[in-house]
Amino acid sequence: MSTPPTRPFELVPMEANHLPEIMPIEAIAFGQFHWSSEAFINEIGNSQAYYCTLLERLHDGSTKVLGYGGCWVVCNEGHITTLAVDPDNKGASLGELIFTHLYGIATQQEAHWLTLEVRGSNITAQNLYYKYGFRLAGRRPRYYQDNHEDALLLTTPELANPQQQQVFQTQWQLLQERLKQKKYLLTTHSLLPTPLSFERDLMTT
Ligand SMILES: CC(C)(COP(=O)(O)OP(=O)(O)OC[C@H]1O[C@@H](n2cnc3c(N)ncnc32)[C@H](O)[C@@H]1OP(=O)(O)O)[C@@H](O)C(=O)NCCC(=O)NCCS
After folding, report:
1. Hey, is 169 helix, strand or coil?
2. Sign of the four-CA dihedral 35, 39, 41, 44
3. How many angstroms separate the CA atoms of 98 and 84, rounded?
4. What domains does the chain contain, in order, with CATH numbers?
5. Ligand 1 pocket test target in 34, 90, 117, 175 with most atoms within 8 Å of CB
6. pTM above 0.90, yes or no
7. Which among 19, 134, 139, 185 is least surrounded, fewest beta carbons within 10 Å?
8. For residues 184 and 94, what is the distance between their CA atoms, to the nearest angstrom?
9. Do 69 and 101 meet the contact criterion of CB atoms below 8 Å apart?
């Protein structure tokens, strides 16, 4: 059986020059009422917001945007605002990788818990969040403008709760094993608050 080739990835703070590649992903991921470039630029400039872009470094040295995500940490509440992966690379653990990075940032920034909204029909995203300990906390009726679908409001238990920490660690370890099998080589860049310790482990893969 042939081994897959190494794929070098970089998680970097989102920059305006990523937007030409982010916007087509955004349009496919979120449809008619997706965020505008201006909305992303405002978010990048928000001191309580943390946005990251996942880049793949290609053989010729150029990079390709494969996904992105963001969260706010305000008054000890972390809120995941967006998460999306290039449609050609869905199901390859990249969404989970970005998500765990956001979770790590929220923890570093001393968020007490994490919240987010997700479409009731978005089973893929819900599966990801439930796997990491999110629970249904409420419903925002007719939240989405396109089809007036309800948003589910999901929240974690206290991030410092030992059971929740165990949930995260277990899933993180499983993710790390999958990424090693896939020969993903991840680097994070120091413009982020501080590199996350669990990501440093992957750098030696
Ligand atoms: C949601 C999204 C970010 C997930 O990213 P991804 O890279 O495709 O997902 P991953 O490969 O990392 O899978 C992570 C988990 O998601 C769930 N998942 C992924 N694909 C799934 C599918 N086809 N069906 C059901 N669950 C799925 C599983 O729980 C999976 O964990 P597992 O592999 O242990 O079963 C991606 O599908 C996406 O960009 N969707 C459109 C935008 C969106 O809905 N964003 C979330 C807004 S709240």
Report:
1. helix
2. negative
3. 9
4. 7-200 (3.40.630.30)
5. 90
6. yes
7. 139
8. 10
9. yes
